[in-house]
Write a structure and sequence with these properties.
single chain, 344 residues, alpha/beta, Spore Coat Polysaccharide Biosynthesis Protein SpsA, Chain A, 2 domains, eight-stranded mixed β-sheet
Length: 344
């Protein structure tokens, strides 16, 4: 009997130990992951406090209708100095599907989109501006076009309500970008766009690259198209547009060409320009040396000699410094960290 009791005691302890181990093992399993939303709406903004309540209300109506609650709205506050963040907080308190990522300072629209894209979990990602000029009622049309088999659908503000200076500059910009990039769109810079999730996770957005998202996607093998969308006059605040932004945009177009078409073979770009200058400088100096050897001229009084030397030097610099600089920009951009003040 004593032997049986001791065996029973041992068996009981063994069972308790196994049960405790099972409990510990169960607690190590990850919690059930929430289902990813169907739609993610990413909205970069800077000082748009008066527009946010109306925009939030309009978005909620449209998104509830087309996704039945399966959506998230991500406002990226690009260092606003007004009450924008508190207005987004009010939306979040009423509807937890509205979120905010707030920068401590202004980094620019590309930075805001980059962070928003990383945070987006939806199968489809919509981008739009916060100034009420983009109409949320266009979102179903963008998604319908996306479901025809496209990866990115860009809005086309066929009828614009902007200052004439901005309209003219935009048309010039779009024409040049269309010719250089080879993709025929009327409005590259429209904030209202629809993407498949795979597209936004592939895009590397920095500088003023937000203007060239259709170009970057197209050159990366994604299918891109556009549809006309409604455009409304600005209700509150003032435009952040400036002539300097388009100058930066054109410079970034050169960067887009280099890092997409020539990143794997950069000498095809830099080497071509640099070699042309080197050869030109070499033949100028060769001509002068031949004349000097024949006694027809003195090199000391020929400014053309200095010009040939400068061409050789500049050619070498373009090949070396330019190539290294562009490659470093591409590498460093992948490690940029933005100082985020708050998330909710």
């Amino acid at each position: 009997m004593e032997r049986n009791k001791s065996n029973i005691g041992k068996e009981g302890k063994t069972e308790n130990r196994k049960e405790n181990e099972t409990k510990r093992t169960r607690t190590n399993f990850p919690k059930k992951v929430a289902k990813a939303p169907l739609l993610s709406v990413v909205i970069p903004l800077y000082n748009e406090e008066k527009s946010i309540p109306e925009l939030g209300s309009n978005l909620e109506v449209v998104l509830e209708r087309i996704s039945r609650g399966s959506y998230e709205v991500i406002f990226v506050d690009d260092g606003s100095t007004d009450n924008s963040r508190n207005e987004i907080r009010k939306l979040n308190q009423k509807n937890p599907r509205f979120h905010c990522i707030s920068f401590r300072r202004n980094y620019g629209k590309s930075a805001a989109l980059s962070v928003g894209f990383k945070a987006a979990k939806g199968k489809y990602v919509i981008t739009m501006d916060a100034d009420l000029q983009d109409d949320p009622e266009e979102i179903p049309n963008l998604l319908k076009k996306l479901n025809e088999g496209y990866d990115l659908v860009s809005g086309w503000k066929r009828q614009r309500f902007d200052p004439i200076t901005k309209v003219i500059a935009s048309r010039i910009f779009n024409f040049v970008t269309s010719i250089v990039s080879g993709i025929r769109l009327h409005d590259f810079n429209c904030g209202l766009k629809a993407y498949r999730n795979a597209v936004v996770k592939r895009l590397d957005v920095y500088g003023e690259m937000h203007r060239y998202l259709p170009v970057l996607a197209y050159w990366d093998g994604f299918s891109v198209t556009e549809i006309p969308v409604k455009h409304h006059p600005r209700k509150f605040g003032k435009t952040k547009f400036g002539a300097g932004r388009f100058l930066k945009g054109f410079l970034d177009l050169l960067t887009v060409i280099v890092v997409t078409r020539f990143m794997q073979r950069p000498l095809h770009f830099f080497g071509g320009i640099g070699t042309l200058m080197l050869l030109l400088g070499f033949f100028i100096n060769l001509y002068l040396i031949i004349e000097w050897l024949m006694g027809k001229t003195y090199l000391s009084n020929r400014p053309l000699l200095l010009f040939g030397i400068l061409l050789i030097i500049f050619g070498a610099q373009i090949i070396s410094i330019g190539l290294l600089g562009e490659m470093n920009v591409k590498t460093i951009s992948e490690r940029i960290k933005y100082n985020i003040k708050e998330r909710f």
